Amino acid sequence: MTPPARLPARRRLLDAAARGFYDDGIASTGIDTIIARAGVAKMSLYNNFSSKAELVAAYLEERHEEWSRLYDARLAAARTPRERVLAVFDAYLDHASMAYDHGFRGCGLLNAAAELPASSPGRAAVRAHKEHVEHLLNRHLDGLVGESRAGELAAHLSFLLEGSMSRAGLEGDPRLLHRARAIADSLLDAR
Q: I want to staple 20 with a disulfide (CB 3.0 to 4.6 A). Which of 29, 72, 165, 191 is the partner?
């Protein structure tokens, strides 16, 4: 692995911002803190990002891509529609199990959205991610319960997933996501 000082400035800035935004929140993580953690000059920040808002947008996109890679890996191992549905939950579990400097605080996207104005592009990006997750559930459920029931069950599972992620973040305990996965599995039995 490349030592941190040898990573490109953009990468170091994104990594420093991601740690700060997740651990302390967007508003509490100032530009000077990000620059210091990244070990770059202030000009490097503005050579890579025109504003803090652009840095936040890049952070949100990276969080989405990070989850998508975890989901793609889980999906590749899934053989049945049921396993594909549960792969969505497993990807959330994988994301929650990643090493965080100050412990698990829930969904980084939802945490960020809570700090952003209602009309901000960042909130729209988070909403698009959550809608995408529900769409994935719907698509996989279609093969399991049929088109007529897939939408309603996808909404239920999406609410279960997001609610468990919120509670797990509040309690700092990703084990609640295991419970949500077990509930989802039992709902699939009851279909």
A: 29
d(CA 95, CA 88) in angstroms, rounded, equals: 11
Confidence (pLDDT) at 100:
77
- 14 half-sphere exposure, CB direction, 13 A CA radius: 15
Number of alpha helices (DSSP H) and beta strands (DSSP E) in the chain: 9, 0
**Is the distance from CB of 150 to CB of 141 less than 8 angstroms?**
yes
pLDDT at 4: 55
Low-confidence ranges of the chain (pLDDT < 70): 1-5, 99, 191
**DSSP class of 98:** S
C-beta neighbour count of 104 within 10 angstroms:
20
Which pairs with CB-CB distance under 8 Å and at least 24 residues apart come from 2-9? 4/39, 5/39, 9/38, 9/40, 9/44, 9/47, 9/48
Copy the structure tokens of residue 68: 């998508």
- Measured CA to CA, the distance from residue 36 to residue 42 in angstroms comes to 9
DSSP E strands, the chain: none
Distance between CA 74 and CA 79 in Å, rounded? Answer: 10
